[in-house]
Write a structure and sequence with these properties.
This protein is α/β, with parallel strands linked by helices. The protein has 13 helices and 11 strands. It has helices at 2-17, 21-48, 51-75, 102-114, 132-139, 154-161, 197-206, 219-231, 243-251, 262-270, 317-331, 334-342, 352-373; strands spanning 90-95, 120-125, 147-152, 172-182, 184-188, 209-213, 235-239, 257-258, 274-279, 304-312, 346-351. The longest helix has 28 residues, at 21-48. The protein is globular and about 60 Å long. The chain starts with a helix and ends in a 5-residue tail after the last helix.
Amino acid sequence: MYKESLNFLKKWEEIQKKISKKERLVMKKRVLSLALAAVMAASLTACSGNSTTTETTAAAEETKAAENANTESKEADGSGVDVSDWKNKTVTCIVPYDAGGGTDTVMRALADAAKGSFKNISVENRSGGGGATGMLAGANATADGTTVTMITVELATLEAMGTNAGLTYSMFKPIMMVNSACSAITVNAKDDRFNTIEDFINYAKENEVSMGNSGNGAIWHLAAAGLAKETGAKFKHVAYDGAAGAITDLLGEHIDAVAVSYAEVANYVESGDLKVLAVMNDKRLDAIPDVPTCKEAGYNVVLGTWRGLGVPASTPDYVVEQLYQIFSDAAQSDAFVDFMNKSNNVIDIMDGPSFEDRIIADLDTYKALVTDLGLKIQ
């Protein structure tokens, strides 16, 4: 009996390694009951004299019961991560920019796709400081997973610029990256000065061109500054709290150009109100295959953004795992994929640890770029 019991304990330890802490707590009482039953069975069997057959049967039944318990727990959500508690919780998603921009629309679509997993989920716009205001609010929220922030590449660029108001990437524990996008140099379709990227650059070498961006130190500011550095163009950088305001002013002919993502201007390009001269990417975009890259025109600049989800750094790992399960499933849903395709957004999923590595690497890149451009705020 002792040999079979030892075998059972070894199998139990192997099962424990494959399941979460929460599942082990759920199973603990069940296994203790099984162990007690085994001891009683062993005592009765010893008294009856039929020990060999009974001991083998009892050990096999105990092992099977433990394995079944593990299987039942995992089948509850299909992933090994129990997310059922979130059905009773309300979650707020902070977008650090104005409503209507790319970050806002992606977050709202993702929240809508995930709404079945929560009691309630809402999106709150908290713009200001090129994204720092909203991200700081999210970083300082209660670390229980009920406040999720759409963190953007500005988490790295603002720190590199010195305009981060105390915000650093280490204040967050990343859940996942959701999408990425390159910069698209876009002008008003009525502006007959610019029909090619060469027209635009040559004009900007001799005349000051106003270039709208999503905030001082934000990625579209750095994208435009990088293009100016590479080409010798002269841009007057005009900052907004998110891309939406810059695009509105471009439509109204109050500024000359923007360097935002194609997804953010796609509707206006399709309606004939705006036109894209070039994209800062390694290759042309499938959505606008006739538009060249800056590299094709001889300007070696490749810059873009990313967006993802984060929670305060002290949030427990098991909470992050649960939120990753919920939002990664939502990101693969038909509704979200359809939205992203129709809005010309590129889905680019990355798990938390990989996303954090990307943030750290990009911070180093932007620190070097900011130093080279002389944009660091002292």
